Recover the amino acids of this structure.
C-alpha cells in the first residue's frame, strides 16, 4: 500500500469581527475578542490547489449595507481589509484564482462565503443538505440562517459538486468520511449542529494532521473541556442539541487521535499559533 501524500497547507487570515468570549464558550471571560475567519490554502502534490472556505471579503460590507442584512453587522461588528481577502493573498504564493481548482465550503455562513465570487472558475464543493438549506432563501429567512444571498455566485449551482459518497475511512466517534482525493490525504466529515450540512476537513499536511472543524466550536478549548457556546448563541444554531453532540464527538476524537491539531475557523488562540503572518496594513 502506498503512503498517504502530504499536503502543503497555509492557514490565512481573511479579517475579523468582534465578539464576547462569554458568548463563544460557556463560562468564558467577559471580554471582547477578535474572531478571525481563517481559510486554508492547500496543495496536493498531484491534484493541485484548493481552498478550504472562502472567508471574509470586503463585499460583505456592501452585502450588509441595508436591512435586513445590516443586522448581521450589528451582531458581529466587522474589521475587514481588502488585502486580506483570500484571492488578494494568492499572488504572494505565486498563484491566481484560476489556480484554485476547488473551494470547499464548510457551511453557508457569510464569514465563510464572502470570498466565493473571487473564484469564477473554481468548483464549489459542499454537502447537498447544506446547499438545499439556503438555495432559495432571501431576506430575513436567509439572514436567520447566517447566509447573505448576494455572496453566492449566480452560477454556483452550475459549478458545484455535491458530496454524496461517504465511503472513506470512518473517524473515531464522528463517523464516515468522504475521501476527497481517494488517497486518504483529505477526509471530509459531517459535523452537524451549528449549521445545516456543516463539514469538517481532516488534512494530512507537511505540518502534521490538521482537523479544520469550521464552527463546530468557536474556541479549541470547547473541545478539550466539552464546553459548548453560551445559550445566547442557540438562536443562530441549526440544532443546539446536536452542537453539544458534535463537541462531545470531537472531544472523543481528540482523545483517540492526540496527534491531530483541531483548527476551529475563529479560535483566537489557534489563530495566534497557526496562521501565516498577514500582509501589512
Ligand atoms: Zn458559522
Ligand atoms: Zn464562522
Amino acid at each position: 500500500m502506498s503512503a498517504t501524500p502530504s499536503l502543503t497547507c497555509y492557514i490565512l487570515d481573511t479579517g475579523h469581527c468582534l465578539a464576547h468570549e462569554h458568548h463563544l464558550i460557556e463560562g468564558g471571560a467577559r471580554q471582547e475578542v477578535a474572531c478571525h475567519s481563517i481559510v486554508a490554502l492547500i496543495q496536493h502534490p498531484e491534484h493541485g490547489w484548493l481552498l478550504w472556505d472562502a472567508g471574509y471579503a470586503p463585499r460583505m460590507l456592501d452585502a450588509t449595507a441595508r436591512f435586513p442584512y445590516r443586522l448581521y453587522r450589528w451582531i458581529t461588528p466587522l474589521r475587514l481589509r481588502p488585502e486580506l481577502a483570500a484571492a488578494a493573498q494568492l499572488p504572494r504564493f505565486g498563484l491566481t484564482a484560476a489556480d484554485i481548482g476547488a473551494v470547499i465550503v464548510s457551511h453557508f455562513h457569510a464569514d465563510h462565503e464572502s470570498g466565493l465570487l473571487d473564484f469564477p472558475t473554481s468548483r464549489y464543493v459542499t454537502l447537498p443538505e447544506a446547499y438545499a438549506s439556503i438555495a432559495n432563501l432571501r431576506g430575513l429567512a436567509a439572514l436567520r440562517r447566517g447566509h447573505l444571498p448576494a455572496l453566492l455566485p449566480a452560477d454556483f449551482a452550475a459549478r458545484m459538486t455535491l458530496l454524496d459518497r461517504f465511503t472513506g475511512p470512518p473517524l473515531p466517534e464522528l463517523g464516515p468520511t468522504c475521501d476527497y482525493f481517494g488517497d486518504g490525504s483529505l477526509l471530509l466529515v459531517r459535523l452537524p449542529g451549528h449549521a445545516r450540512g456543516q463539514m469538517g476537513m481532516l488534512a494530512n499536511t507537511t505540518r502534521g494532521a490538521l482537523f479544520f472543524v469550521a464552527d463546530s466550536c468557536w474556541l479549541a478549548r470547547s473541545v478539550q473541556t466539552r464546553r459548548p457556546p453560551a445559550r445566547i448563541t442557540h438562536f443562530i444554531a441549526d440544532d443546539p442539541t446536536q452542537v453539544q453532540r458534535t463537541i462531545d464527538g470531537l472531544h472523543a476524537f481528540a482523545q483517540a487521535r492526540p496527534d491531530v491539531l483541531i483548527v476551529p475557523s475563529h479560535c483566537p488562540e489557534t489563530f495566534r499559533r497557526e496562521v501565516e503572518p498577514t500582509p501589512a496594513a
